[in-house]
Backbone:
């Protein structure tokens, strides 16, 4: 997978064993990501308001990853898209990279985002105080589906865990091997609401966030289901 | 001293070098080097008013270190056009579109717009709004910002385009059959900026300058980013003041040691309560004598809220000032805090004001500052006779003004050893009088200068920094600058009173015959505007429906939260939220059409306002009667423009998750304070026939300088550009109570009209001498001339030269004052269209239409700007803005992020229609406009939510969780209003 990383966003072609990879060098600005033609709509959307033009210009991909509170929906989108972090010592999933405590900021070299994965459906859903406020809770769902069966699912949330953005791992696993029917969706939505550990603050109580996690999960999965059809 | 690095960059196409420290912010470096169009609004990068272009891309200069831009290209507004050059098309478009109000965010908005148009010459409206999300504006509601950028794009593309226009139609008196231009029906559901529509009755007297969209007189200097704000000009030798604030909500300062702070080289003064006289005062800028209580001291031994004053320092640099603050050792005895008004009144609650020398507190032991009891008629008898009695409780929250320019003051001794306070204040004359006893100087040794204001909305009707700044100048002999941080704006300035509003209404034969309002006002840690805000709330909240039997009781209560004060709307906003929702609840309960029920009851032309005498503002008022009202027409127009009844019926039948709703409210406000507000203006003729118009009126971004000049120009028959407008400076302009209480158009306008009439008479008399005529009154002033009935004329320049140099030599000059013993209410209706997500409680506001009778509209563009900006602030109040505290009284919302004001991309369509009336007591028939825009948004949205969902939400803000809980509660219990008594 490793290639010489430039300071421009580019796409690595499919090589037979791997999907096309969108390479986001760590030093490029979020604005460059936002404007790049190759970027998936879910990533672009995650960099829209309330992340402003100025913030995108001033914030590098590295900074966004290391300070996920700056653009939590962007990090959630990267997590949902199975992004791999390339750093000085090798590479690992972004999910694992975010959990590392020994990572030095300069160590991140690039993010590798699988692009145009066959059978992948994606959706987003959120609840916010106002349309342009940072959502109270949001989910980004990326499901790989073959023959109507989910082979892999990743549900990434903001506002639902202590972390700014995080995958609901257990609930995501529940989807694997399942058909995306109403019953499965309801069970997964319930499972997510049990898995999350949302904050309890004036923006939204824990109870409310848990309920909303259920709603946004169901809506995102229903949108995925429509896309499958 | 920190080490400096030389940084070379391209700045506005010139290579330039600065010596900068490693951590010097780009914003500070640019401002220190004269690029003062770059503004300071916060320290967290939220507001965007410090935006510059870095290699053509917008960035926030407060978030970048200057060393990091070495070798790069920076553009500030100064680079768009230099003095003497034509404006850049973006600047021209902002000037022509009426997009500039206070002008503080304008440089950042224009640079962002330029960057957008450089990249995308023909952006969509949504692209414009999204780009502008990065620069907050608190004045405009973004309507004219979007219009300006669309216009700039057209100019840059070389297209023919017009902007800054309004539509006017003449309509029959009842406006029932008005031929409404179709665009105001918004059939496409869009939110593109519409020009304001002015509906004029056929018999409205004609005018030439008044009533036209005159470009603002201060536009040029604002779109060029000239140094017009307080902090843009700094005297030599200036020290930086800083304020140490309390981390506790309630504590006694047991010991405070300043030894270490004073020993820091470069620190010139450290002052605590031990160093300055203890003089009780009230910080609210109000007329003499200031209403009680006098419960503040410039510095005190006790702190009563997080952010309260502890100590002040003055030092050579801001960094040294901060270092000195950190070196002050304070030992606190932390006391229990009480954070809400109901708890504060309970037996055993912590006593917030136990100091013996406070003056005028009603019941300090129960934290009750004022107990107000007033009324008319026989309320109990009227309730006994009523067919129905209804009760409702409504709650509103603490809202912060968040004007972009923080409070800032610079003080210095002048060459006559008089103390000059250059301050961002709405009340320069009140500040001069109020600060004098605190600093031990007579009024005659104090001068207060008000430069341009970067917004105020009532928060700068308080004296917050001036006394501290003055103390530091007195202590050091040096000029001193003090400025609040954004966090201090939240913790140490003022806010809107949170209110608990309990109404009881008696209805007989469909008429409101009895009304009882109990109002709890949370004044925070100090009384300031506590008395007057509740009195206004009671008066407006009981006069809109003007029951002949009305009772008002209010407790104004201390809590250990930042003090509340004046905020656009001033009690009327809160109480009209309550009464409007309750009136709709009653109409639903009685099965009446809400519009008919309100129409049957609202204050009518010719009716006395029953409580006007009892509820003045801080004192007894004056009898008043409604002498102009276009409310019926306003509602008729809004019904047509929204297709209200068809939608209302259809929406009530909806099923499913996403539901539309439409709602309405009516509202009234006032025009100044009857029998109290006074304004004066001076006009002086110059050799060329131009005039100096000097006013105490305080333009805080509203455009009042412009509309007042229009009034003078109308009388004198000259264009506005022949007036040199100056406001305000206590040495050089006559008195004015200040910009508050919606007084400027009506009261200051009256003064300008009066002085212009005096000058006109003087000109007529002198021209009659020149023309050898016996009847000066027959001379007409028009087109810069004085014209005789026989066609002969002299120019105003000839009159000026003659009067100054040749014949009966004297200065044509006059001063005139104005006071009114009536405060004619502007009236309006607010309609709201929303979509509610019943699963999440999210409410998306899609359209806000306000139809307003503000009397004669002096300038439709600036007046529309007032409505649009007020509606945006009101939308924040309705939906998201709330100051929140933890259990110990520490505020959780000290930045714009969690506080959340509406940004450009999420604003709904905001439409403004004026229904003109001719108020007999107003200058040219005008009433006021500014505050009424606050009053109707919240109740109309509640009305729309009810239309969509069937539930009532009685507490602001209307957060998703609050709406969601109301919807869920409705599924399990009866949440409709209880009818208490049915006779």
Residues:
């Amino acid at each position: 997978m490793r290639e010489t990383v430039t300071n421009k966003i580019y796409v690595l072609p499919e090589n037979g064993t791997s999907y096309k990879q969108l390479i986001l060098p760590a030093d490029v600005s979020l604005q460059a990501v936002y404007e790049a033609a190759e970027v998936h709509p879910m990533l672009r959307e995650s960099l829209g308001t309330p992340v402003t033009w100025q913030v995108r210009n001033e914030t590098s991909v590295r900074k966004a990853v290391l300070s996920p509170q700056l653009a939590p929906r962007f990090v959630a989108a990267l997590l949902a898209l199975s992004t791999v972090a390339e750093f000085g010592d090798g590479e690992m999933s972004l999910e694992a990279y975010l959990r590392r405590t020994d990572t030095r900021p300069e160590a991140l070299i690039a993010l590798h985002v699988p692009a145009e994965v066959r059978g992948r459906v994606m959706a987003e859903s959120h609840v916010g105080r106002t349309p342009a406020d940072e959502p109270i809770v949001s989910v980004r769902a990326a499901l790989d589906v073959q023959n109507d069966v989910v082979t892999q699912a990743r549900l990434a949330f903001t506002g639902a865990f202590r972390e700014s953005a995080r995958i609901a791992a257990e609930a995501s696993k529940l989807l694997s091997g399942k058909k995306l029917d109403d019953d499965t969706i309801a069970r997964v939505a319930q499972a997510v609401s049990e898995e999350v550990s949302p904050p309890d603050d004036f923006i939204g109580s824990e109870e409310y966030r848990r309920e909303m996690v259920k709603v946004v999960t169901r809506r995102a999965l229903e949108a995925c289901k429509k896309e499958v059809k | 001293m920190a080490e400096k690095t030389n940084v070379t960059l391209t700045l506005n196409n010139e290579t330039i070098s600065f010596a900068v420290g490693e951590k010097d912010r780009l914003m500070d470096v640019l401002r220190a080097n004269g690029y003062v169009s770059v503004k300071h609004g916060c320290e967290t990068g939220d507001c965007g008013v410090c935006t510059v272009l870095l290699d053509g891309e917008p960035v926030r200069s407060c978030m970048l270190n200057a060393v990091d831009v070495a070798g790069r290209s920076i553009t500030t507004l100064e680079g768009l056009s230099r003095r003497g050059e034509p404006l850049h098309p973006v600047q021209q478009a902002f000037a022509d579109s009426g997009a500039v109000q206070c002008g503080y965010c304008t440089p950042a908005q224009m640079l962002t717009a330029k960057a957008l148009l450089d990249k995308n010459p023909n952006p969509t409206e949504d692209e414009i709004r999204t780009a502008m999300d990065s620069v907050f504006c608190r004045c405009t509601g973004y309507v004219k910002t979007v219009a300006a950028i669309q216009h700039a794009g057209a100019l840059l593309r070389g297209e023919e385009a017009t902007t800054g226009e309004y539509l006017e139609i003449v309509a029959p008196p009842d406006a029932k059959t008005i031929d409404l231009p179709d665009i105001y029906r918004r059939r496409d559901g869009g939110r593109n900026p519409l020009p304001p529509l002015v509906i004029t009755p056929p018999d409205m007297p004609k005018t030439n300058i008044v009533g036209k969209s005159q470009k603002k007189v201060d536009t040029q200097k604002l779109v060029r980013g000239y140094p017009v704000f307080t902090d843009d000009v700094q005297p030599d030798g200036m020290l930086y003041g800083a304020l140490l604030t309390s981390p506790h909500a309630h504590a006694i300062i047991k010991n405070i040691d300043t030894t270490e702070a004073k020993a820091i080289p470069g620190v010139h003064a450290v002052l605590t309560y031990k160093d300055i006289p203890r003089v009780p005062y009230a910080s609210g800028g109000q007329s003499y004598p200031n209403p009680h209580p006098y419960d503040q001291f410039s510095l005190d031994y006790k702190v009563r809220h997080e952010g309260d004053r502890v100590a002040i320092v003055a030092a050579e640099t801001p960094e040294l000032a901060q270092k000195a603050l950190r070196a002050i050792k304070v030992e606190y005895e932390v006391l229990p805090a009480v954070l809400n008004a109901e708890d504060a009144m309970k037996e055993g609650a912590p006593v917030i004001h136990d100091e013996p020398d406070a003056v005028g507190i009603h019941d300090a032991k129960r934290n009750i500052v004022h107990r107000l009891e007033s009324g008319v008629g026989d309320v109990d008898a009227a309730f006994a006779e009523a067919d129905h009695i209804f009760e409702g409780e409504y709650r509103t929250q603490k809202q912060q003004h968040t004007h972009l320019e923080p409070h800032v003051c610079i003080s210095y001794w002048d060459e006559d050893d008089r103390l000059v306070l250059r301050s961002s204040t709405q009340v320069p004359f009140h500040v001069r009088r109020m600060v004098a006893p605190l600093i031990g100087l007579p009024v005659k040794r104090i001068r207060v200068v008000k430069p341009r204001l970067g917004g105020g909305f009532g928060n700068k009707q308080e004296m917050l920094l001036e006394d501290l700044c003055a103390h530091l100048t007195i202590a050091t002999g040096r000029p001193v600058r003090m400025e609040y941080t954004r966090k201090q704006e939240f913790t140490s300035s003022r806010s809107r009173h949170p209110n608990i509003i309990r109404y009881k209404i008696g209805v007989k034969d469909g008429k409101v015959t009895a009304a009882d309002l109990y109002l709890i006002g949370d004044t925070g840690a100090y009384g300031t505007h506590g008395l007057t805000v509740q009195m206004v709330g009671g008066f407006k909240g009981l006069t809109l429906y003007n029951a002949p039997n009305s009772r008002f009781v209010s407790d104004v209560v201390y809590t250990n939260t930042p003090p509340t004060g004046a905020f656009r709307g001033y009690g009327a906003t809160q109480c009209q939220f309550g009464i409007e929702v309750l009136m709709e609840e009653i109409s639903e309960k009685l099965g009446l059409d809400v519009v008919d029920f309100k129409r049957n009851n609202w204050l009518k032309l010719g009716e006395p306002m029953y409580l006007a005498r009892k509820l003045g503002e801080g004192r007894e008022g004056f009898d008043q009667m409604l002498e102009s009202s276009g409310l019926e027409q306003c509602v008729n127009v809004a019904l047509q423009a929204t297709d209200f009844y068809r939608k209302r019926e259809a929406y009530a039948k909806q099923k499913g998750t996403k539901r539309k709703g439409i709602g309405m409210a009516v509202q009234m406000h006032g025009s100044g304070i009857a029998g109290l507000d006074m304004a004066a203006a001076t006009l002086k003729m110059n050799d060329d026939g131009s005039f100096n118009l000097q006013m105490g009126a305080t333009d805080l971004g509203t455009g009042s300088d412009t509309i007042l000049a229009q009034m003078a120009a109308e009388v004198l028959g000259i264009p506005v550009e022949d007036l040199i407008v100056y406001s305000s400076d206590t040495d050089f302009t006559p008195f004015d109570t200040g910009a508050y209480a919606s007084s400027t158009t009506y009261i200051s306008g009256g003064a300008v009209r009066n002085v212009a009439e005096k000058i006109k008479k003087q000109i007529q008399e002198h021209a009659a001498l020149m023309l050898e005529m016996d009847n000066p009154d027959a001379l007409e002033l028009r087109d810069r001339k004085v014209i005789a009935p026989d066609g002969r004329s002299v120019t105003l320049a000839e009159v000026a030269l003659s009067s100054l140099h040749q014949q009966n030599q004297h200065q044509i000059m006059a001063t005139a004052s104005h006071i009114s013993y009536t405060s004619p209410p502007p009236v309006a209706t607010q309609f709201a269209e929303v979509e509610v997500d019943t699963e999440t409680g999210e409410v998306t506001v899609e359209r806000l239409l306000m139809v307003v009778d503000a009397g004669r509209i002096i300038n439709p563009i600036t007046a529309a700007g007032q409505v649009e900006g007020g509606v945006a602030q009101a939308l924040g109040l309705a939906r998201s803005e709330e100051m929140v505290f933890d259990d110990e009284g520490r505020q959780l919302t000290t930045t714009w992020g969690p506080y959340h004001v509406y940004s450009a991309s999420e604003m709904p369509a905001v439409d403004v229609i004026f229904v003109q009336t001719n108020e007999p007591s107003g200058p040219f028939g005008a009433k006021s406009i500014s505050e009424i825009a606050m009053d109707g948004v919240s109740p109309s949205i509640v009305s729309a939510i009810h239309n969509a969902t069937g539930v009532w939400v009685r507490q602001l803000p209307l957060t998703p969780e609050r709406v969601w809980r109301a919807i869920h509660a409705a599924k399990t219990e009866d949440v409709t209003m209880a009818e208490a008594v049915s006779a």
